[in-house]
Design brief:
The protein is α+β, with helices and mostly antiparallel strands. It has one domain. It contains two helices and four strands. The protein has helices spanning about 15-40, 70-80; strands at about 5-10, 10-15, 50-55, 60-65. The strands form two sheets. A two-stranded antiparallel ribbon has the order 1-2. The longest helix is centred in the first third of the chain and has 24 residues, at about 15-40. It is elongated and about 60 Å long. The N and C termini lie far apart (about 50 Å).
Amino acid sequence: MFEVEYRLNGRKVTANQLGDALQQQAVAAAADEVKRKVSTMLCREHSRAAKIVVNSSPRSEARLTVEGCCDEFIGQVTRALS
């Protein structure tokens, strides 16, 4: 009998789980990219880090929102993510 097995990064997943697993993998990759770009950034005036909020739903793309101590720093972080 013919059999199809799905693996994602070496981990066995069912066909039903494949979509969820791919979405999780994409979100994790995006989070790693965000960390790489802004994890060391601090506001020069307030010495505070930014907070990145990921808004997501199953039917839409994830949307990032930057929160910070001041508008200038939020702009700097937003530009770094562009």
